[in-house]
Amino acid sequence: MSEPLYLAVTTKLxxxxxxxxxxxxxxxxxxxxxxxxxxxxxxxxxxxxxxxxLEALRRVEHQDKTVDLGDGVTVAMCxxxxxxxxxxxxxxxxxxxxxxxxxxxxxxxxxxxxxxVLPTAEALHLMEAxxxxxxxxxxxxxxxxQSA
Length: 148
Ligand code: SF4
Ligand code: SF4
Prior knowledge:
Blueprint: H1 7-10, E1 33-34, H2 36-47, H3 51-61, E2 66-70, E3 73-76, E4 81-82, E5 87-88, H4 96-100, E6 103-104, E7 107-108, H5 120-131, E8 136-137, H6 138-147
Antiparallel strand pairs: 1-8, 2-3, 4-5, 6-7
Bound molecules: iron/sulfur cluster (2 copies).
């Protein structure tokens, strides 16, 4: 299996402005997709967790992920989003879409903290390759693994 496409941006983007920042956490939707290579990376990562880390992950997965935005509008957050600390439990292996949040022109940093975005031509080229992969939310991958 080839490498996850998110590796293409790990050395090109500066993620340091995002360290510890929670200002765009509402983008962590349950619908964020994972390509097969990305889901494989998540699975491998989970296999390396210690007992305590795995317990923490399971606790987060079982949290109520509903966020009430008011006026009857709610959103469901990603299963890996810790509702208490507002952080990602799989940050080191988060998929491409999570890495691009705030780092491409069409998903800008909402607080203008990210100074250098991926050049648009390069980002579009990457998205073309990504669009060629089957992608689905974590919930679908888990359903598949349970019915296998
Ligand atoms: S993109 Fe902007 S708001 Fe989002 S985590 Fe990074 S610095 Fe914070
Ligand atoms: S994988 Fe992490 S960064 Fe991506 S949507 Fe889920 S919680 Fe957010």
